[in-house]
Specification:
Chain lengths: 113, 112
């Protein structure tokens, strides 16, 4: 199994531009999570899906952030417009079911200048 | 709300010694507690899971304990090696939903 696959690994963009982060979870996993990690705030949950349905998006910072999961094998996190304070590492993770371990991708390092 | 505390400062341990990391939480006990390892530039990797009715769990050189009275979990690495150097995160799994509550992590440095 290739694990959770995220793309791109690095993204540098200018303030105001749209950014789209992509994630392919592990096949058979029914929950998908988007996290943001910074030195100051650690791992923050942005949103999670169960069976492709968004369950809790209370961690999404603002309306500038949106996430979709059109099918069981693909999810996107979009930031529009991006701002310098959005600079962080964004992780996608999936799990097989409740109480099972999370499997993380290697993240997308986003830099907004 | 539930909070987790891990050693905020880096832990420096001599190679061959046992490293012990602490995870303390407030309020009610989780159904499960998980430990992860994170290397620079990588996502966290799952290591061990312990249930609330388990006192101890072992995997090779790793041992996790769970004390619901003290509201604490300890993570031990015996015969530590420089390759064990990483940041270790604990996460509470409350069993009420699909979320985990994460600690900030402890950076472990094993010196040769």
């Amino acid at each position: 199994d290739a694990g959770v696959i995220q793309s791109p690994r690095h993204e540098v963009t200018e303030m105001g531009q749209e950014v789209t982060l992509r994630c392919k979870p592990i096949s058979g996993h029914n929950s998908l999570f988007w996290y943001r990690q910074t030195m100051m705030r650690g791992l923050e949950l942005l949103i999670y899906f169960n069976n492709n349905v968004p369950i809790d998006d209370s961690g999404m910072p603002e309306d500038r952030f949106s996430a979709k999961m059109p099918n069981a094998s693909f999810s996107t996190l979009k930031i529009q417009p991006s701002e310098p304070r959005d600079s962080a590492v964004y992780f996608c993770a999936s799990r097989e079911g409740k109480n099972s371990p999370l499997h993380f991708g290697n993240g997308t390092r986003l830099t907004v200048t | 709300s539930q909070k987790i505390e891990q050693n905020s400062e880096a832990l420096n341990i001599q190679e061959g010694k046992t490293a012990t990391l602490t995870c303390n939480y407030t309020n009610y006990s989780p159904a499960y507690l998980q430990w992860y390892r994170q290397d620079p530039g990588r996502g966290p990797v799952f290591l061990l899971l312990i249930r609330e009715n388990e006192k101890e769990k072992r995997k090779e050189r790793l041992k996790v304990t769970f004390d619901t009275t003290l509201k604490q979990s300890l993570f031990h690495i015996t015969a530590s090696q420089p390759a064990d150097s990483a940041t270790y995160l604990c996460a509470l799994d409350m069993d009420s939903n699909y979320q985990l509550i994460w600690g900030a992590g402890t950076k472990l440095i094993i010196k040769p």
